[in-house]
Amino acid sequence: MMATKYRGYANEWSRIYAEHLKAHKMDMENAFLFGYGKYTDADNRSSWGLLPFLEANGGKRYELDYDSSTGSSSNATYDVKGGFNMDVLIDVMDDFMSYESGNSGQKLCLTSRKVINTLHKLGSGSFLDNSFNGSNSQAIMQAAVDVKGSSFMPVDITSIKTSYGSLNFVPHPLFRGDMADKAVCVDLGNVSYRPLAGNGVSRDTFVETNVQNNDIDGRKDQIITEAGLEIMLPETHAVIDFI
Predict the structure, then answer these.
(1) Which residues, other chains included, contact 237 with Cβ-Cβ below 8 Å and sequence gap of 6+?
(2) Is the model more confident about 41 or about 148?
(3) Where does residue 118 rank: exposed (0-12), middle (13-18), buried (19+ CB within 10 A)?
(4) pLDDT at 72 over 80
(5) 23 class by beta-carbon count within 10 Å (0-12 exposed, 13-18 middle, 19+ buried)
(6) Phi, psi for 29 (deg, rounded to 5)
(7) Contact status, residue 31 vs residue 205, Cβ threshold 8 Å
(8) Is the pLDDT of residue 81 over 80?
(9) In this structure, are residues 128 and 138 in contact, taking their beta carbons and an 8 Å threshold?
(10) Alpha-carbon distance values, 225 to 28, 66, 83, 202 (Å)
């Protein structure tokens, strides 16, 4: 396989390597978003992912309503408080963006396509309809919601702006299933990627080759990363549940 040139993807070895590198990256994303910290012993420790760490260790928590079709509560809106004292975005940002906590004023909000769709729909009872159906709707619309391109991601960002700062919503493919109704809002200034290092040796992503047993007529390599997230000032990050 290593010596043969194929039609289509000419180098099958490179193709398989590329597929495993993508799978490894997805494993890392899963761990950084949803992993649970665990201490087994001095040599076996797992760091926390963002979402369970914030839920367990003092991150902000908010709820926003999807719709009011049942009449029991009101939609999430930009600036009008709904039934049952539901949080809305201005109130969220007033609490979330307190400067005393070390906030930067810009949050990266990773979420599902379902939430992104909710923020963009125009029909009756939608987020935009509830937010901008007053005499100042044009001014509020221009100030509040902006869909813009990004220099660091090949996707559009839905930026909801307030006088306190901005929530920059980005769809993420891992927010699906039981995570489809959540958004994790991260202050990037207070999160760092930390590979394990000691005695001058970094355990960031590397490849070990030929790890197969001697009786195997083949070759096996493995991709290893020993790293975690350093999450500082949990009160500058938040989890939003859409209900």
Answers:
(1) 50, 54, 59, 60, 107, 184, 185, 186, 187, 190, 191, 231
(2) 41
(3) buried
(4) no
(5) exposed
(6) -60, -45
(7) no
(8) no
(9) no
(10) 8, 39, 47, 10
Q: What does each C-alpha distance from 234 to 23, 90, 108, 118 come to in angstroms? A: 29, 21, 14, 27
- What is the distance between the alpha carbons of residues 15 and 160, in angstroms, rounded to a whole number? 40
* Three-state secondary-structure class, residue 150: coil
Angle at 232 between CA 230 and CA 234, to 5 degrees: 120
DSSP state of 47: P
Segment 41-61 mean pLDDT = 89
3-state helix, strand, coil in the chain (%, to 5): 30, 25, 45
Structure tokens at 229: 């997230």
pLDDT at 137: 47
